[in-house]
Design brief:
The protein has helices at residues 7-21, 26-40, 45-60. It has one domain. With 64 residues, it is mostly helical. It is flat and about 35 Å long. This is Secreted protein.
């Protein structure tokens, strides 16, 4: 059975855990979110999208 979860939801959960458990301050999390918005509108965005898609495909192709 394949489980599909949005990358946004996964990253939101990771940030939430980092804020609560690892001592990441909320201000730092906001700065990271703003960086993500700026990167999304930059010329680097297609490269990052290709990288994350390839990594997700590689992980999805692993047979246990």
């Amino acid at each position: 059975m394949a489980l599909s979860i949005s990358m946004s939801v996964l990253l939101l959960i990771i940030v939430f855990m980092l804020v609560n458990k690892a001592g990441l301050k909320a201000v730092h999390a906001v700065v990271c979110v703003l960086l993500g918005f700026y990167l999304a509108s930059s010329s680097v965005a297609p490269t990052i999208d290709d990288l994350t898609t390839n990594v997700a495909d590689m992980i999805g192709g692993v047979k246990i």
